[in-house]
Write a structure and sequence with these properties.
Helix 2 packs parallel to helix 4 and helix 7 crosses helix 8. It is built from ten helices and nine strands. The protein starts with 5 loop residues before the first strand and ends with a helix. The protein folds into two domains: about 150 residues, 3-Layer(aba) Sandwich (Alpha/beta knot), CATH 3.40.1280; about 70 residues, Trp Operon Repressor, Chain A. The strands form three sheets. It has a five-stranded parallel beta sheet with strand order 2-1-6-5-7. A two-stranded antiparallel sheet has the order 3-4. It has a two-stranded antiparallel sheet with strand order 8-9. The chain is of the alpha/beta class. The longest helix has 19 residues.
């Protein structure tokens, strides 16, 4: 029996937002090829009469409205047969990252609950064991833009979505590093030339240069990732590998750099 394609189920007050950008380019072609599936559910269909209400004023006072637990619970019950974990995009959640995208892509799918207004009743999140995930330290008008970004990042990791597996192997965050810079024709543009090593045809030198560039970018732009990279891998940065190799050639004992000791 053939397994069903990876399936995303999105509960939202605005189903017209989807597939949106997911209908174009890489995710769009994969969606058309049935490499993954997208189902949207209108939360308003489960609203309370007479006006299909889905929210109410917060207990304890304060501005805005809160989405009701009883309404959302009915909506989630209607998709109980859909595969994957329940995910609620919100600023209080754990940061979304490449590793989480890989984890989600390895499963059968995911169910995304898109909040609006001031958010959803905490009792729903607790009772359903919903995983809260944040796209970043900022506030959006609703969970839909975050859901689109999470689905784009996740679906491109599905088997067959990208033509070349190497495209995934060398991307940012793969191996814990940011990606190295890219260049293409023309070789000289506005007085700026492509690094000579990329024109050398020496694949070993090119690989070493790219690794060093990835490490340099990560160390400079994302010290948090750099510290985690050193801690998790114990790898020696490319410039330090060169110094150690030179030292070993002269019989010298390799020395740890300050950055190595204090990432």
């Amino acid at each position: 029996m053939t397994a069903a394609p990876w399936t995303a189920t999105v509960l939202t007050l605005f189903p017209g937002i989807f597939p949106g950008p997911l209908g174009f380019s890489v995710p769009g072609r994969a969606l058309e090829a049935d490499l993954w599936r997208l189902r949207t559910v209108n939360i308003r269909d489960f609203g309370l009469p007479p006006h299909a209400s889905v929210d109410d004023a917060p207990f304890g006072g304060g501005p805005g409205m809160v989405m009701r637990a009883d309404v959302l619970d009915q909506a989630l019950e209607a998709v109980a047969d859909q595969p994957g974990p329940l995910v609620y995009p919100g600023p209080r959640g754990a940061p979304f990252c490449h590793e989480l995208a890989r984890e989600l892509a390895a499963g059968p799918g995911m169910v995304l609950l898109c909040g609006r207004y001031e958010g959803v009743d905490q009792r729903l999140l607790d009772s359903r064991g919903i995983r809260e995930v944040s796209l970043g330290d900022f506030v959006l008008s609703g969970g839909e833009p975050a859901a689109l970004a999470m689905l784009d990042a996740t679906t491109r990791l599905l088997p067959g979505v990208l033509g070349r597996r190497e495209s995934l192997d060398e991307e940012s965050f793969t191996g814990g590093l940011l990606e190295y810079p890219h260049y293409t024709r023309p070789a000289c543009w506005k007085g700026q030339t492509v690094p000579e090593v990329l024109l050398s045809g020496d694949h070993a030198r090119i690989a070493g240069w790219r690794r060093a560039q990835a490490e340099q970018a990560t160390r400079k732009r994302r010290p948090d990732l750099w510290a985690r990279y050193l801690e998790n891998t114990g790898n020696i940065p490319a410039p330090d590998r060169v110094m150690q190799a030179k030292g070993a050639a002269h019989g010298a004992r390799p020395q740890a750099t300050d950055e190595r000791k204090h990432p």
